[in-house]
UniProtKB/TrEMBL annotation:
Domain Mvd1 C-terminal: 181-306
Top-level taxonomic group: Bacteria
SUPFAM superfamilies: GHMP Kinase, C-terminal domain, Ribosomal protein S5 domain 2-like
Enzyme Commission designation: 4.1.1.33
Diphosphomevalonate decarboxylase-like N-terminal domain location: 7-165
Keyword Lyase: yes
Gene Ontology MF term list: ATP binding; diphosphomevalonate decarboxylase activity
Family: Belongs to the diphosphomevalonate decarboxylase family.
Name of the protein described by the UniProt record: diphosphomevalonate decarboxylase
Gene3D superfamilies per record: 3.30.230.10, GHMP kinase, C-terminal domain
GO biological process: isopentenyl diphosphate biosynthetic process, mevalonate pathway
Keywords: ATP-binding, Lipid biosynthesis, Lipid metabolism, Lyase, Nucleotide-binding
Organism of origin: Pseudogracilibacillus auburnensis
Residues of the signal peptide: none
């Protein structure tokens, strides 16, 4: 009852921001992402009959408290499904994602944990079933089951059975690049979960955000299928700005941006003025991700690396889905 799985993180081009059910992690809107090859989590799960409790290490350090509880409660989903209640596991994860700094480390983390747990227990789940399980650990993680371009369908049912991710285009459909511009490795003042709930409950801009999403989603899918970079980039950038505007309309208001976040955004806008197509997107954190085409890589990287406040720029190509080690 042992397996090791590797999952890559993803960056949402159409953002997931809000839940209609907190316990099952059912979103208020559908979202769309691209899987990245540059950031990943590799997790080994070993269920053992003689263990008295779960053991969880992250980057070789034993984890306790809230993070431990989140993992052990998540493992219960698989134990219950496999009728293995009372069989505990050793979980060892190596995370190659800057944790809690806006790089969606939970996406690759829970996707790898789900895949390794399911294989260790020989559950033989379909990708759709695995995506549903993964969603219950971290919403965005359900998109990391697949490579390429992935849509998470919000679904309508109260039980969440129709809320899962599907691949809309494979890894080799389109060669675009994503530069992760690292500004800080500090943990966020407002976590994604808390910020999301505060926005849904209090933001005066939230209804407008939801109303705009179906059009964004439909048009960006058309752009991806046509490999229309300017269309995809413009929609992704505008969608990102709308999402972050909802946090300013929450009470109390908050933002994930720093001064350097704004500086990088302005750098990207300047690239476009110089006829270099590049677009930014930002998740719930200060760091910026920049979309660009392979032929413009050197010029984009030169500009980003020389921007004040940037500590590192990490390039990703379009990544693949779950793999087993």
């Amino acid at each position: 009852m042992r397996a090791t799985a590797k999952a890559h993180t993803n960056i949402a081009l159409i953002k997931y921001w809000g839940k209609r059910n907190e316990e099952l992690i059912l979103p208020t809107n559908s979202s769309l992402s691209v899987t990245l090859d540059g950031f990943y989590t590799e997790t080994t799960v070993h269920f053992k009959e003689d263990l008295k409790r779960d053991i969880f290490t992250l980057n070789k350090e034993e984890i306790t408290n809230i993070a431990y509880d989140r993992v052990t409660n998540y493992l219960d989903l698989f134990r219950n499904y496999a009728n293995k209640q009372g069989v505990f596991a050793e979980v060892h994860s190596i995370n190659k994602v800057p944790t809690a700094a806006g790089f969606a480390s939970s996406a690759s983390g829970f996707a790898a944990l789900a895949a390794a747990s399911a294989k260790a227990l020989q559950l033989h789940l379909t990708d759709e079933e695995l995506s549903r399980f993964t969603r219950q650990g971290s919403g965005s993680a359900c998109r990391s089951i697949y490579g390429g371009f992935v849509e998470w369908e919000k679904g309508q049912r109260d039980d969440g059975m129709d809320s899962f991710a599907i691949q809309i285009a494979p890894q080799d459909h389109w060669d675009i690049r994503v530069a992760a511009v690292v500004l800080t490795a500090k943990e966020k003042d407002v976590s994604s979960r808390i910020g999301m709930k505060r926005t849904v409950d209090t933001s005066v801009f939230y209804d407008g955000w939801l109303e705009s999403l179906p059009k964004d989603l439909q048009e960006i899918k058309e752009g991806i299928m046509a490999c229309d970079f300017e269309k995809v980039g413009a929609i992704a950038e505008a969608n990102c700005l709308k999402m972050h505007a909802t946090t300013l309309g929450a009470y109390p208001p908050f933002t994930y941006w720093q001064d350097t976040t704004m500086t990088v955004m302005q750098t990207v806008q300047q690239l476009r003025k110089n006829n270099i197509p590049a677009y930014f997107t930002i998740d719930a954190g200060p760091n910026v991700k920049v979309l660009y085409l392979p032929e413009d890589e050197q010029r984009v990287l030169d500009k980003l690396q020389n921007t004040e406040g940037v500590s590192e720029v990490i390039v990703s190509k379009v990544g693949n889905g779950i793999s087993y080690v």
